[in-house]
Amino acid sequence: MQFSFYSKLLGSLALLGSVLTLQSNIAHAQANVANYPSKTVKMIVPLTPGSGADIAGRIVGKSLTEIWKQPVIVENRPGAGGLIGTGVVVNSDSDGYTLLVQSASYAANPAIYKKLPYDLKSLTDVSILGTSPYALVVSAESPYKSIKDLVDAAKAQPGNIPFASAGVGSSTHLAAEYFNQTMGIKMLHVPYKGSPEAIQETIAGRTAYYMAPLQTAIGQIQGGKVRVLGLTSATRSEIAADIPTIAEQGFPNFEIGLWVGVWAPSATPKGILQKINTDINKALQEPEVKTAYAKAGITIKLMNLAETEKFVRSEINKYSKIAKDAGIEPQ
């Protein structure tokens, strides 16, 4: 009888200890959310400096530094179409202090690689920083003066004329493949380390064209170093109202855009994810951010966590279809 009493007492104490531990953990987690961020936040951009994601990330990061009263550092980790930098975030602590800032390449990669070095479920969608069209650019000295000129040349030499991208599996790669597919042409893909390199090679005439993010190419466009044959948006851009869209040149359904998003390790507390999303949306409405975005040709897209997740899933499906229809074999 006495043994039974002590056994029950020990069981009750163990249960009480578990409850107290749970309450302590909950309180600790709530404190972490309330105090976030309490130190430097690192944004990993898995692309080169000057890329679309890098530009948007630095603009928003500067504003978040002021909102959070903590440093927000942008760190470039390019390579393998963004896979290297993405892997850094996947393997980081799930505390909200290491975030991924990536372009639509995040959605394009699964369509190109048979096996990613990480599971998509290892990351969770946090926010969309903005969208912009691609500008199909050729060298200012290029013989191609229109979309028709480029398409006619490609049809005359199927598979021989090169086009540039910011890397295998990047969004610029699949945007170009979508263009080639729509036009019924075959061209030779030449991947580079990032957008700056792809643009320079196109300026030099070593590739026929590059599907450049508008914010990346705007300086070369305004400086007369490249010629834009068309934008990939449905309507003209405010920052480049004199440049026609590809759609208005006889391809009314042609539309594909670049976007930049933010991700965090999937085990990051929901409260921290919500705070990051809310504060990014707050930053996007700051006058300085709006002005910088306007100059770069970036359109603001305010989305909550659920809307962001829905958008990213739809983009993954879209790029998968583009790759399949283009006959791209996963590597």
UniProtKB/TrEMBL annotation:
PANTHER family: BLR1237 PROTEIN, TRICARBOXYLATE-BINDING PROTEIN. Belongs to the UPF0065 (bug) family. Residues 1-29 form the signal peptide. Keywords: Signal. The keyword ATP-binding does not apply. Gene3D superfamilies: Bordetella uptake gene, domain 1 (3.40.190.150), Periplasmic binding protein-like II (3.40.190.10). The keyword Signal applies. Transmembrane segments: none annotated. Pfam families: TctC. This is Tripartite-type tricarboxylate transporter, receptor component TctC.
